[in-house]
Amino acid sequence: MQGFFSFLQQNPYLLLFFVVGLAVWIGRASIKGYGLGMVAGAIVVGAAISVTASLYGVKLELNNFVKSLFYYLFMYGVGLRVGPSFINSLKGDGLKFTVLAVVSSVLGLALVVTGAKLFNLPTGAAGGMLAGSQTMSAAIGSAEQAVTSGVVRLAPGAKPEDAVGMIALSYGITYIWGTVGIILICKYLPRWWGVDAKAAAKAYEAEFGVSNVEGGGLTGYRPFGVRAYRLENPKQVGRSIAQFRQSNPEYRILNVLRGDELLGAGADLVLRNGDVIALGGSIGALTDKMGLIGPEVAEQKALTVPLDQAEILVTNKKQVGKTLESFRDLALAGQLQIVRYERGGVPYPAGLKTQLQRMDIISVVGLKSAVNELADMWGRIARTNTSTDLLTLSAGMILGLLIGMVQFPAFGASIGLGNAGGLLLSGVIVSSVVSRLRFFGNTPNAARNVLEDLGLVVFVAIVGVNAGAGLLAQLTGAVALKIFIVGFIACTIPPFIVWAIGYHGFKINPAVLMGGVAGARSHSGPCREAAVEIQSSVPWIGFPVGYAVSGILLTVFGYFAMLLAQ
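User: That's the sequence. What structure does it adopt?
Assistant: Structure tokens below.
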């Protein structure tokens, strides 16, 4: 074994990706749906390998520059993700969920700091407990930054590596209940409160026209269709296409085939007996008036009509505040279908009563003419490509690093956002601007996910490896128990208070509030479980705003947890 660890010591890149790969593999394992996840797995694997190597007299260590680089890329990626939601949280109903996120984050910070002082825990424990109990792995980096920047006073004889190791240790101890606990609490809070969240979800769906899309998967249902009919109904013979549309606004004639000649669909074209007519509309409309034209035929030539799919960016201020239901009587309503609704950068379960907001992104599919007409009405088509604008990425990184240099006096020292906080803020700024302009700065979701996932797991893996050698000297049963108790309390108490405020104070629908509680803890797992529990997608309505706000707050609070706990 000593030879194996010596080999890893001599090949640091091999060591890094060995830890990352093993962490991802272990993170995928679960027991009844609960598992470590790859981030917590990276801490455990990295520390375990490092500790085991130290028993054989081999010290494993990875480059701190690489660690910082990947963490900074992660922070910028987080800013890109939460930016639009964070800006939208500052207005309208988003303020309620913003308050819930602030309350949850501040309570988590206060409980962790109080527990660290009460139990006189070692330096670094507060930052790790905050990151683990609130399941905000990014807080590890900001907590470590408080150590490396020198604003945290170390005990005589203590080294920065000891504090960083304690951050990792505390995170690992508190993360498991931080994850499992919030899922269970969010899932069963309504039941403990004596509330029927499932009935509340059904009421919300009925009132706002929200469809339940949870677990829909791939189905045979297609809301929009094009069919061909041979004209045999004498009532339609001799009528122009304009006259037909006036009496049947739910349909649109797309093509007329007469013999072997395609005549198109001009408004003045007069229909004749035997014409093959390509008709477009919703599936419901196409099956509602059987026999209106004649028998259905499979005429490929007539059915070769242009369809389109596009993302429409809502920019027209005249349309803001109008419900989707208000557009149902337009002629184009039966010619296309909304397939995805995005608000603040995340999917949104829209319904008939959903009001348009500026910068909503609505994906539609249907007749090309109808798609273009709707885009002109609501705003414009946002056609993005799959390439990443590296110039904007570089400019955003530079802006973030410059913001991080700004400092101000507080707590008896000069502090600032630092590189990590500056990059987080830069990502928010860049993504907010890009979401409004949509013609530059493209960072596809896949590219952003690489920044986040790879950046975080590599950073945490290096933290685990570098901290592992010193863990044996710091870890005792008493210290571990105290850390777990503080983490348990910090995870468990805030969701109950947030629920009470949202339910009794803000009168938020319980089903929506389940998502609000999950968002306030910046964790999608509880929202997903809540949606499955009540068999409704309604919880996702309350999720996006709190998710963005708490993600930023908890990340920054890792730094302040270290300052306040000393």
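The first helix runs from residue 2 to 10.
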